[in-house]
What does this fold into?
Amino acid sequence: MSHQNPQQGQTAAEQTPLDKLTRRQLQELEQKKMTPFQKFLEAVIMVLPLVCGLVSVLEYILIPDNSTNRHPQTYLVFLILLICAYFLCLVYAGIRMAQKQKTFYEKLRYRAPLCSALFLLLAYYDYLTLKTGILTQPFVPCLNFVINAFWQDRMMILDCTLHTLKLLFLGYFAGVSLGLVTGITCGYSPRCRYWIDPIIKFLGPIPTSTWIPIMMVVATSLFGGAVFIIALGSWFAVTVASMTGISNVDKDYLEAARTLGANSRQLVFRVAIPHAMPNIFSGLTQAMSSSCTAIMIAEMLGVKSGLGWYMNWSKSWASYDSMFAALFVICIIFTVVTKSLEAVKRRVLRWQIGVKA
Amino acid sequence: MEKTVLKLDNVSKSFAKIETDDVTHALSSVTTTMESGEFISMVGPSGCGKSTILRLVAGLIQPTTGSITLNGKPIEGPGPDRGMMFQKATLFPWLTVYDNIAFSLKMQGKLKGNEDRVEEMIKTIGLQDFREDYPGQLSGGMAQRVALVRSLINEPPVLLLDEPLGALDAFTRMNMQDEILRIWQKKQQLAIMVTHDVDEAIYMGTRVLVMDSHPGRIVSDLKIEQPYPRDRSSQEFVEYRNEILKQLHFAGTKEK
Ligand SMILES: Nc1ncnc2c1ncn2[C@@H]1O[C@H](COP(=O)(O)OP(=O)(O)OP(=O)(O)O)[C@@H](O)[C@H]1O
Ligand SMILES: [Mg+2]
It folds into this structure.
């Protein structure tokens, strides 16, 4: 390979001697060459989101409304912002491509079909709500109403969001840290397991929401009670997962560590816990989803603040637009939280990549 | 370095079976003495208790009857004075090659100032380019080499090697044999190595223990009186081999 003359049409990867390949170039080399038709298809897929965006804009402007639409420009601005964002990404990907950095392009290429689908979905939703009323207004409001409602009530929503986040993180981290302590101790010491196991067996199967009525009667502050309920759910998930992980540590690793001079503390922290990390992380993920459920139930039933309460409150005032606005905010929060957890997990467990299971 | 003496006195070890009420008699009345400066090779059919002897010496299991003493003191548990390389490579999958090798130094708080020793070990096994890789990305033979130096880096007075070179190709294997001998000669430790390869046992050992099963026992204890490095094709070498093969009931087999 290296003694070939660099020819025209060769990529950078092909001109590099094999022993100087980078990881990217290796992938490039091992990929199959694209036919012209495939290249054309590729280009169409990349541009398709712009076309679909245009479709959704035209749909919004051209088709006459079925019900009165106040501040009609908001949704339009929103759409155009989305389209511009995609366009900027496309330009950036092009620039990176010119610098022979394909990573960003590939990420964008991977998501491009989804972006197209999103624009089409927006157009279709708008058609169903605002334009035809097939989905009855105002119970299922069109996006323009929702965005307007969000903007009008933004201070209140922000306040509620902060409250929800505070509750979520307080409960989650309290539960998770306690859960790690109990799970790891019980996983490692059979005596602790003897005493704690019955508690877990007894409390574990009870769904978290069961506690809410009790909390409303017993707890002196609803906030504290809600924290307690969220913490209880995450405590349970993390305890069970880390206990399983620790007690299933491969005996061979412990023996090897012992002959290498590890003391019992080091056996726990240097062998058992790293080995149980995959389990612990699945516990953390599960705890997060249980916390998200618990917090919504708590806010809808008792706590007098937060997004869950806001949704309920908007419903009682028949302002369905605000209700949907809060729903979207909740979606975004939970997505961000879950994604961040995923990212941490990928970082910590990177040794698992390529391990033969 | 002071002299280490390892004594096995009438050691028997039996294991309870899980399904039935029987017990497996893995070792029966093993008596032998080993000293620093010796390189003991152990050969014998599969299941005759070779690994069990190493695990007893390492302190991972306790003998059913009899006693094992190191310098007069009974062995009560594992310790950094006895480095063990396991038959199954047990590299920690969450640590890089470097961190795996440095593990025992780190556990004893001795890594600071000894980083060059880790580097030297990595160089010995020729894995400089894989220092930051995780064990999941290594080949079987590479993993075995890492496991080998991981147990040697501490320079323990007793080396326990359970088929250390089993997964290597013939050439790497011969190189690593010399490498192990070099490390052992430098410090004159007591090395006990299990192997399935009779030639390797003779090439490396100052003594060869031949074992047999049902129940596991030492059937012969052969001193190899030849200076290093040994010539695999010399007359004496062939005689030792024939002797050991006879003990292993392969006497009738024609040599190719
Ligand atoms: N932990 C254990 N529990 C039950 N039986 C065991 C255990 N360890 C070893 N044995 C039994 O002891 C006997 C000797 O085992 P050992 O591992 O020492 O054999 P070996 O000589 O190392 O064999 P190989 O060459 O195949 O590694 C075998 O019959 C085995 O089944
Ligand atoms: Mg064995």
